[in-house]
C-alpha cells in the first residue's frame, strides 16, 4: 500500500504517510500476526510437553488440522491477495505513465529534429 500510494500520489505521500501512521501500521500488522499465531494456543489446540517421550505435541490433532486448513490458508490468501491488488494497481499506473511519456517524447523528438535542422542551416 505504501509503494502504491507513493507512486500514484507522490506529492500527497509525505502528508499522508508520516512516522506516526507508519508506527500504527506496524502495530496493526504485529497485532494481526499475534492473533493469527495465538489461535494455536487456545485450550483444545494448545501444545503440551510429553514428559515420557520428551517431545512437544498437541492435545487434539484434528484441531491442528483445522487451523492449518482454514486459519493459516485464509490469512495467507488475504495477505497475498492484498499484495497482488496493490502491485497490479501500481503496475498499471506505471504502464500508463510510460505510455504517456513515450507519446510526449515522440512529439518532442520530431520538434527537436526540426529545430536542430533549422539552427544548423543558419
UniProtKB/TrEMBL annotation:
Source species taxonomy: Eukaryota, Metazoa, Ecdysozoa, Nematoda, Chromadorea
Listed InterPro entries: 7TM_GPCR_serpentine_rcpt_Srx
Residues annotated as signal peptide: none
Protein name from the UniProt record: 7TM GPCR serpentine receptor class x (Srx) domain-containing protein
Annotated TM spans: 21-43, 74-95
Limits of the 7TM GPCR serpentine receptor class x (Srx) domain: 1-118
Record keywords, A-Z: Membrane, Transmembrane, Transmembrane helix
Organism of origin: Panagrolaimus davidi
